[in-house]
Amino acid sequence: MAPKRQSSLPPQTKKPRLPPAPKLEKTATSLDLLKGEKEQQEAIEHIDEVQNEIDRLNEQASEEILKVEQKYNKLRQPFFQKRSELIAKIPSFGVTTFVNHPQVSALLGEEDEEALHYLTRVEVTEFEDIKSGYRIDFYFDENPYFENKVLSKELHLNESGDPSSKSTEIEWKSGKDLMKRSSQTQNKARRKRQHEEPESFFAWCTDHSAAGAGELGEVIKGDIWPNPLQYYLVPVMDDEEGEGEEDDEEEEEEGLEDIDEEEDEDGGEEDEDDDEGEEGEEDEGEGD
């Protein structure tokens, strides 16, 4: 038996399977996404650069505005002084101004008002660095409530803008401490508040908490101090407006009365014409 002949051909091997060719559409989409993300990142970086320039200009503007404010504060001082001298000639100017202001009057009890009748003038002084705070001085005549001639309250703003304050200690005369009386009559519901507001004007004067530090001070400094006359004259202005409204109402009523009278006259003439017409018809009937 003849031996088997070995094949001279090399053994067949399986061809490796090649990965499918990527679709052109998907490749293009991926490139577009990468390009879009890159453009967005570049835009964000440019926005940040522009914003830094804006912030730099804002800081520069704040410094220049501060210099302008300081300049004009000095120019205003002689006029503030002259105004204070004139206000001192008007009895109860200060208390009337406070009573007519809605936010200040909310802190005034009857005894607060009585004590404030001795207030002769109020002065607001901004610190050299305006952004750091200001002082309010309340000047009083001799009065039965306290010994002080001047009550001062300083309000300071730290770098973060949080207010703090310090003030004159009020030297109450015997039995005249309005803060004790106010606390005795304080509403029980308000005691439950975590950040309780001052319950009276004089309590605010000595309140150094965050709640009492700046709010009323800002009202006096920013609203009353620039033009106290507008609040002193509030009732007069309201009366003038009320009189004007009453005059308008009277004119309207007179106009309506005139219209009614004309209508009555027209109605009377029509009745007379009707009567004459009826009489004429009766005469014609009798003639027939």
What is the helix/strand order? HHHHEEEEHHHHHHH
- What is the CA-atom radius of gyration, in angstroms? 43 Å
Enumerate the spans where pLDDT stays under 50 for 5 or more consecutive residues: 187-196
Strand runs, count = 4
- Can you summarize the main beta sheet? 4 strands, antiparallel
Total of helices = 11
Q: How far apart are the termini?
A: 170 Å
| Helicity level | 55-70%
The rough form would be described as: elongated
Give me the side-by-side strand order of the main sheet. 1-2-3-4
- Going by helix content, strand content and strand pairing, the class is alpha+beta
Structure, described:
With 288 residues, this protein is α+β, with helices and mostly antiparallel strands. Helices cover 60% and strands 10% of the residues. It is built from eleven helices and four strands. It has helices spanning 24-87, 93-100, 102-105, 110-116, 178-184, 188-191, 201-206, 210-213, 215-224, 229-232, 234-287; strands at 119-126, 133-140, 150-157, 163-167. Strands 1-2-3-4 form a four-stranded antiparallel β-sheet. The protein starts with 23 loop residues before the first helix and ends with a helix.
